């Protein structure tokens, strides 16, 4: 059976506990995923400058520059997928990490199989983002002057400006464009954007909705495109055309 990831996938693990880093890298290697391990942000920067990686696993509790600051820098500098690692019960760090653009998270202590599932899921979504298959019915969505190029994964504002979205943000917008004027629950959106390995942490969808509103809405505090349906979920309100 073909693996979901190939031997060309390379992961950078930012983890200051050498024993944990070694265990994770060995486990991922048995599943055809190469993992380099560094202990802090400075070593991470040097390693990223020397070679390319497909994904970063980032522990938030690091010496020197903290993981949240590193997450912000990574997201500002490149569209490299990020999985953050948080301590059990640290919901605030988890939410802030997602707000800063992390694609997923995992809570310590975790089962290596869960980490592998999350890595595969994020890599799968990242690869899907890079593919150029044209969906049935057209390659563009248009709404309220906005234009979404599905093949190129580009979003253009009514002003003509290109708007940068993370992979997770684009997946959410794609799911909404596919299902306009329908109430979608948080569980449905988690399944549509994260797949079968999705976390039950529903607040992650709220954070993703908030991030998307900041980029699409003229007034994010009074959204007209992505509306909240109390006690139910979210509704994408505009008329969506496919071309």
From TrEMBL:
It comes from the Bacteria. Residues 10-123 form the Response regulatory domain. Keywords: Activator, Cytoplasm, DNA-binding, Phosphoprotein, Transcription, Transcription regulation, Two-component regulatory system. Its main location: cytoplasm. It is found in: Cytoplasm. The keyword Metal-binding does not apply. Residues 138-238 bind DNA. This is Regulatory protein VirG. GO terms for molecular function: phosphorelay response regulator activity; transcription cis-regulatory region binding. Residues 138-238 form the OmpR/PhoB-type domain. InterPro entries: CheY-like_superfamily, OmpR/PhoB-type_DNA-bd, Sig_transdc_resp-reg_C-effctor, Sig_transdc_resp-reg_receiver, WalR-like, WH-like_DNA-bd_sf. One of its GO terms (cellular component) is cytosol. The modification 4-aspartylphosphate is found at residue 59. GO terms for biological process: regulation of DNA-templated transcription. The keyword Transport does not apply.
